[in-house]
Write a structure and sequence with these properties.
Chain B: This is Pyruvate dehydrogenase E1 component alpha subunit. The complex is a heterodimer of chains A (324) and B (326). Chain A has eleven helices and 14 strands. Chain A is globular, with a radius of gyration of 19 Å. In chain A, strands 3-2-4-5-7-6-12 form a seven-stranded mixed β-sheet, sandwiched between helices. Chain A has a five-stranded mixed β-sheet with strand order 9-11-10-13-14, with helices on both faces. Chain A has 324 residues and is of the alpha/beta class. Chain B has one domain: Rossmann fold. In chain B, the strands form two sheets. Chain B has a five-stranded parallel β-sheet with strand order 1-2-3-7-6, with helices on both faces. Chain B is built from ten helices and seven strands. In chain B, helix 1 packs across helix 2, helix 1 runs antiparallel to helix 9 and helix 2 runs parallel beside helix 7. Chain B is globular and about 50 Å long. The chains are: A alpha/beta (324), B alpha/beta (326). At the A-B interface, helix 3, helix 4 and helix 9 of A face helix 5 and helix 6 of B.
């Protein structure tokens, strides 16, 4: 075990998988010589050369489409899209290309990973602060993961690279400097599709991913001060969902709060809420509460931005409301 | 002449063109008889582009196609019976009826594959060429796209990277004059789109797209260059779409004079003319009759084949959102 930052854990995952499998290669904007704007790919071009770690032109649409077919023809590309806000540019590659071929052609696999980072809180404005989880989680055939801890970041990225299907890997700009213990065992993988209970509780279940797990844990502390026992589930994978973990927790607490940093209307929290209604309705004592970004652009100035981002206080308020 | 096809190759290209033409004609008849489903994009008049270009490739090379890909499929060796059955939505089709005529893919033949998002074939082949370069093999990726697709932003992005990284990709611009109904003069300020190649540091050649031998020669040079690691080439094949955009095209925008002019340059007749000195008329007739019979048999077989039965696709877990949804 070693203490390391989230960005370093990702870097270690990439390095280990590139050492293990020569078909793994990285491409994206500013990832080579500079090491990535969030330093996730630091040092990798020096170690693996310019063919396997490529700086690219600013061409997201083509890059994503190329990842699809490169993965279909014998390599395992890992593409970095600098901001999740740019995901609309790559949606054709995901929706009209990657999503269809395994079904249509059956004897193809598409083992590529699309890494990106989203989320607010850094004063980056309306085009560099969004969480667009629901856009990608909506697509059949694409796996979507969003780890919060350095250990999960490493273990899930390694699983994503080894997976035979497309994986969108969602990072968060405020997590890159988070430090924690990470295993140095290169064969320790975190399975895709498995949630993790990060705090046990009996009164209300809070479901979250990525940075919202940290806010949910803080909310649980606030609730504990009121004598409310909140369970916090880090879903880790947005698709395919760990339905068993969700239903088991609700069977225990009978109350659910779903948290997502994206928009509310047709958002990922809406899907979680509907899924809970589908599979755990009889266990619910109250309607599912949603905590999301309001349906508006992310503003720039600090007091404005902090006014829209979901946080511990809002999550705790939502939990209290479901228990009334 | 360097890179010229052998007589056997030339005859095989001729045969495959007749296969494709017969398929298109039969599909036209079947459409009128109400026996097809959805729009079908025929490539009558354009056969020499796809057949001539793919004749240069080996089995391990890759091809990406368009919504008008019948000549590309047959050229790359996809079985005519499977293609016909797929177009007719049968369980025996190349893709079991899941894909339809625009999206046929056959991984074993390196045809991956049809792509009906205009421009989609361009980054697709570029990505395959990137994979080839990273793996260090001598294969090439061939991209078919049209003058309509040449106006997409993704075309620029892809060609820029192909030129920048000297990727082993051959771009075949199948210039059939129209993007759906809109003439190329209303879509681009230049008639010769290959002018753009200079901006990507790649060589370009304008070729008579109705002449298989001309296509073969130009593409052979481009493929050899790609295999040597010297990068991409843009081949602009001038041709003409004789049967409109699709079977749902109501026409009225193509001039009779143009149609008559291009009809005089029908690629199958051009090919017959080129072969006349070396092969007897009887032998050519025999080859053509064989091709026609092969397609007719494929059509009959497909019409008699069962329709597919629906199965929810559950092999991939992310296709299903939850176990109960399976």
């Amino acid at each position: 075990m070693a203490m390391m930052r989230y960005a370093e854990a990702l870097n270690q995952a990439l390095r280990e998988e590139m050492q293990r499998d020569p078909s793994v290669f990285l491409f994206g904007e500013d990832i080579g010589r500079y090491g990535g704007v969030f330093k996730v790919t630091k040092g990798l071009m020096d170690e693996f050369g310019e063919s396997r770690v490529r700086d690219t032109p600013i061409s997201e649409q083509a890059l994503a489409a190329m990842a699809v077919t490169a993965s279909m023809t014998g390599t395992r590309p890992v593409l970095e899209i600098m901001y999740a806000d740019f995901m609309p540019l790559v949606l054709d590659a995901l929706i009209n290309q990657a999503s269809i071929y395994e079904y249509l052609w059956q004897n193809v696999t598409m083992p590529f990973v699309l890494r990106t980072q989203g989320g607010g809180g850094a004063g980056a404005g309306a085009q560099h602060s969004k969480s667009l989880d629901s856009l990608v989680a909506h697509i059949p055939g694409i796996k979507v993961v969003a780890p919060v801890t350095p250990a999960d970041a490493k273990g899930l990225l390694k699983s994503a690279i080894r997976d035979s299907q497309p994986v969108v890997f969602l990072e968060h700009k405020l997590l890159y400097n988070l430090r924690d213990e990470v295993s140095d065992d290169p064969e320790l993988l975190v399975p895709i599709g498995k949630a993790k209970t990060v705090r046990e509780g009996t009164d209300v279940s809070i479901f979250a991913t990525s940075r919202m797990v940290l806010e949910s844990q803080k909310a649980a502390e606030l609730l504990a001060q009121d004598g409310i026992s909140a369970e916090v589930i880090d879903l880790r994978t947005l698709r395919p969902l760990d339905l068993d973990a969700i239903t088991a927790s609700i069977a225990k607490t009978h109350h659910a709060v779903v948290v997502n940093e994206g928009w509310r209307f047709c958002g990922y929290a809406a899907e979680l809420s509907a899924t809970i209604m589908d599979f755990a309705f009889d266990d619910l004592d109250a309607p599912v509460a949603r905590v999301t970004l309001p349906d508006m652009p992310v503003p720039y100035a600090e007091p404005l931005e902090l006014s829209v981002l979901p946080n511990a206080a809002r999550i705790a308020d939502a939990a209290r409301a479901t228990l009334k | 002449m360097k890179n010229s096809p052998s007589l056997d190759e030339q005859l095989e290209m001729h045969r495959k063109m007749v296969v494709v033409r017969r398929l298109e004609e039969r599909l036209g008849e079947l459409h009128k008889a109400g026996k097809t489903r959805g729009p079908i994009h025929r490539c009558d008049g354009q056969e020499a582009v796809g057949i001539g270009a793919t004749a240069v490739l080996g089995a391990s090379d890759f091809v990406t196609s368009t919504h008008r890909g019948h000549a590309h499929y047959i050229g790359k060796g996809v079985d005519i019976r499977g293609v016909t059955a797929e177009i007719l939505g049968r369980a025996t089709g190349t893709c079991g009826g899941r894909a339809g005529h625009m999206l046929i893919g056959d991984r074993d033949k390196g045809m991956i594959g049809g792509n009906a998002i205009v421009g989609g074939s361009i980054p697709a082949a570029t990505g395959m060429a990137l994979s080839i370069q990273v793996r260090g093999t001598a294969d090439v990726a061939m991209c078919f796209f049209g003058d309509g697709a040449a106006q997409t932003g993704i075309c620029h992005e892809s060609m820029n990277m192909a030129g920048l990284w000297k990727l082993p990709v051959v771009f075949i611009l199948e210039h059939n004059q129209f993007g759906l109904t809109v003439h190329h003069t209303v879509q681009s300020p230049v008639a010769d789109l290959s002018l753009r190649a200079a901006g990507y540091a790649m060589p370009a050649e304008i070729v008579d797209g109705n002449d298989t031998v001309a296509m073969y020669r130009a593409v052979a040079t481009a493929v050899e260059r790609a295999r040597r690691g010297e990068g991409p080439t843009l081949i602009e094949a001038k041709t003409y779409r004789m049967q409109g955009f699709s079977t749902s095209d109501m026409g009225g925008y193509q001039s009779d004079a143009d149609l008559a002019d291009w009809n005089r340059r029908d690629p199958i007749q051009v090919s017959r003319g080129a072969l006349a000195d070396s092969v007897s008329t009887e032998r050519l007739d025999q080859i053509e009759a064989g091709a026609v019979a092969e397609v007719d048999a494929a059509v009959e077989e497909a019409l008699a084949a069962p329709l597919p039965t629906f199965e929810l696709f559950t092999r991939s877990s992310p296709y299903a959102t939850a176990p109960e949804a399976v």
